[in-house]
């Protein structure tokens, strides 16, 4: 029987599955076998997807009896081939052109293997030690790249949506603090200017927890978030989760390049002021999901300063510019109060690897709670760094290790050069689309996304054009030969390329365009011809 096989007959045998000094050899063998298989699978992948349907795969997964263990890692990996690996969507393939999913760099995968085995939890020092210091150093490094200043801080998160949620929470509570102080209302410790971070309040006493002061319920309904109509849906979702409702979000129109119009923003801010509303935050986007557009950050920063609004920059996509030769595209981000970065997009990291950065570390007090069993208040006085004091999570993976090893092995410049490659490729692809009469493209990209549609003819019914593009995308996905995304622009269906793979060539893109046109043409050929009118 190989080291991968094990028949558990009792508690003592079950302990053989635990990773420790006595089972390290078994662990090494199992992981080696797994890596050997997945590396062979990736090497042999000829297209990004098999085209399997939900109905086609569901019986295979449902047929697995989870109450009958195989007691053999090799057998489990054989089964995994059937339920997952065979039909997985492979982001590393150059014709995967759909969403903001990147191929991952090998140094980060080394980090993934290490962090999974050691299994540190980054909530407190006594569960992570060096892991805490590594994460804090990476936060400092990122803040330095952004230019947030000496008082900056932050925390790793699960992704851009969580980072945006935390940013809006901080902005909300800062707005409440300022408004209540201005009105002379009682302000609970939660909203007051605190001593050092983590000393603001503890669990147990409702007043100490920031129980609503007498005027807080009057302030909350007046809060507004202003953001581009092209911004990420997580901003509205955050407003809902924070008890403000999606109606608290004001969508600011964008210009022809899909960037926020600052004249419209100024008008909305003035309207809020005249209507007695409080612009608690303006969310600028540095790389919109659909168009890759970067809002005019310096102008937005000036308006935020003038109206006393928190400026948040959602740079989940565009954060790769921090290490790019195009760094100037982010000019103005250094004036933000908070910034979202997704390393698992343009830093080529495995999911999850993201962070929220803030200009003033004191604002993180709004997510600080003390628990006697975990991070009692005395630890602050002892200068023990507990990352849970800054996070809306408690248990948290050591995802920072992936980025640490990437920087230590490859270096930031190498990561930036990879991101520059995909931006260059998108520029070439835009020219290809612009010059192809079969397609229309919405906007010339700043980053690496292209929104376009197949155009049957100039006199075609718009509804039929929608159906053609929807069909082309679905048929391409079903074939598995390539994967593209879709979106809606001005009520009409469009297709989208998201280029994050430096291995994707212009030839790959041209081939996918031909496949789209082929599927579209086939669909049109099956449509009934309009009857000729009688003369």
Keywords:
single chain; 535 residues; five-stranded mixed sheet; 12 strands
Structural commentary:
With 535 residues, this protein is an alpha/beta fold. It folds into 2 domains: 116-188 and 215-410, 3-Layer(aba) Sandwich (Aspartate Aminotransferase, domain 2); 413-526, Aspartate Aminotransferase, domain 1. The protein contains 17 helices and 12 strands. A 7-stranded mixed beta sheet has the order 2-8-7-6-5-3-4, with helices on both faces. Strands 1-11-12-10-9 form a 5-stranded mixed beta sheet. Strand 3, helix 9 (234-241) and strand 4 form a beta-alpha-beta unit. InterPro entries: Aromatic_deC, PyrdxlP-dep_de-COase, PyrdxlP-dep_Trfase, PyrdxlP-dep_Trfase_major, PyrdxlP-dep_Trfase_small. Keywords: Decarboxylase, Lyase, Pyridoxal phosphate. Residues 180-217 are annotated as: Disordered.
What is the strand and helix layout of this fold?
Elements: H1 11-14, H2 24-44, H3 54-62, H4 73-83, E1 96-97, H5 106-118, H6 130-146, E2 153-157, H7 160-183, H8 216-219, E3 223-228, H9 234-241, E4 249-252, H10 262-274, E5 278-285, H11 297-307, E6 310-315, E7 338-342, H12 343-346, E8 354-358, H13 378-381, H14 400-409, H15 412-434, E9 439-441, E10 449-454, H16 462-479, E11 483-489, E12 492-498, H17 506-525
Helix pairs in contact: 5-14, 6-14, 7-9, 10-11, 16-17
